[in-house]
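Long-time lurker, first post. I've been practising inverse folding by hand and with some scripts of my own, and I keep getting stuck on stretches where the structure tokens seem ambiguous. Below is the full token string for one chain I'm working on. Before anyone asks, I'm not after the true native sequence, just a reasonable design that respects the backbone. If someone could post their per-position residues I'd love to compare against what I wrote down in my notebook.
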């Protein structure tokens, strides 16, 4: 029986093959004499598919290194569905050169390709490298623009069939609906940062990578001071606005390679990779000061932060739980000592 990570690598292989199929098809369309007016468009589409290929290759490399989580609850099912898509496309090649309406049929095949590749789990894969800092590209936004370009070009054609217009509209609607599904699964709706599931899915493989490469990581647990008083005084809508602002301030303060999510209630978790305790403390202090400064403009609030920094050893049974437990302990020390401060976990001397 296949292990989940083996199946995950097979999923990435199929995604690579599907985008390579799209790249070849669009490149072929760009060379068709019958479609002179659309040559530039199809060349742009093939170039964008080539970018997608580079992304899948990078994703696969990091997955082989253990830096990408197995995101799917049922990876065997996802693989089976993608293989069905692959088989369907391979048997549905339209011979454009023999078609009575090559423009319509080329768009029809292109929409079939794009439609079959839209999947909530795959959308999250399109987001994960930039989130983890392993890659600076933003394929999620690129792919959305890629779809919009299809629709805009389709609508610009005079006399195109109403059926294709409907198909284009349906694809964009499906994309937007799947975005909502993906966000609900991995992101906190209120603050826009990762939720607990998203945090665990991303941090665990990054901890494994840190263990392999022998560099320290840090977990920061952040809690809003006297948040209940804020809700009681200003109302829950103001409290929600404050939580959203806190998430935004943290994201602006930390590096792209750092991870932030809402752990629950008014608690946020921040994961810093390849940092020592001194650097982690500087980052935490900067977060604390920025929050105090920014929120002073509307509803003043302060935060308390606890830090745990360490190397990840192979004998740790559940490293993330240990890091969170010790960061939590440091957080409570910050609160007990007057709040609005940063505390690093103190190890017991042998």
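-- Answer (accepted) --
I ran through it position by position. Result:
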């Amino acid at each position: 029986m296949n292990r989940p990570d083996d199946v995950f690598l097979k999923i990435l292989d199929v995604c690579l093959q599907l985008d390579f199929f799209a790249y070849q098809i669009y490149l072929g369309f760009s060379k068709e004499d019958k479609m002179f007016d659309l040559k530039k468009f199809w060349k742009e589409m093939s170039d964008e598919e080539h970018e997608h290929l580079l992304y899948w290759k990078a994703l696969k490399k990091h997955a082989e290194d253990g830096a990408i989580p197995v995101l799917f609850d049922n990876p065997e099912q996802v693989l089976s569905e993608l293989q069905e898509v692959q088989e369907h496309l391979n048997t549905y090649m339209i011979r454009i050169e023999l078609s009575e309406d090559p423009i319509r049929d080329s768009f029809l095949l292109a929409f079939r390709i794009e439609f079959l590749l839209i999947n909530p789990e795959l959308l999250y894969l399109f987001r994960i490298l930039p989130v983890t800092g392993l890659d600076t590209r933003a394929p999620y936004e690129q792919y959305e623009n890629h779809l919009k370009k299809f629709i805009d070009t389709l609508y610009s054609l005079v006399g195109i069939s109403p059926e294709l217009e409907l198909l284009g509209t349906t694809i964009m609607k499906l994309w937007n609906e799947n975005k909502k599904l993906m966000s609900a699964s991995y992101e906190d709706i209120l603050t826009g940062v990762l939720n607990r599931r998203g945090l665990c899915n991303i941090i665990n493989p990054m901890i494994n990578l840190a263990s392999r490469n022998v560099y320290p990581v840090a977990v920061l647990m952040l809690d809003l001071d006297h948040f209940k008083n804020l809700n009681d005084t200003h109302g829950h809508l103001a409290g929600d606005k404050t939580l959203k602002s806190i998430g935004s301030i943290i994201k602006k303060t930390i590096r792209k390679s750092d991870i932030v999510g809402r752990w629950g209630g008014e608690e946020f978790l921040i994961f810093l990779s390849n940092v020592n305790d001194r650097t982690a403390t500087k980052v935490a202090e900067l977060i604390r000061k920025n929050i105090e400064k920014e929120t002073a403009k509307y509803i003043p609030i302060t935060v308390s932060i606890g830090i745990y920094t360490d190397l990840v050893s192979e004998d740790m049974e559940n490293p993330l739980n240990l890091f969170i437990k010790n960061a939590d302990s440091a957080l409570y020390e910050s609160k007990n000592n007057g709040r609005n401060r940063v505390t690093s976990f103190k190890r017991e001397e042998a």
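A couple of notes from the structure itself: The first helix runs from residue 4 to 30. The chain has a mean pLDDT of 83. Happy to go over any region you disagree with.
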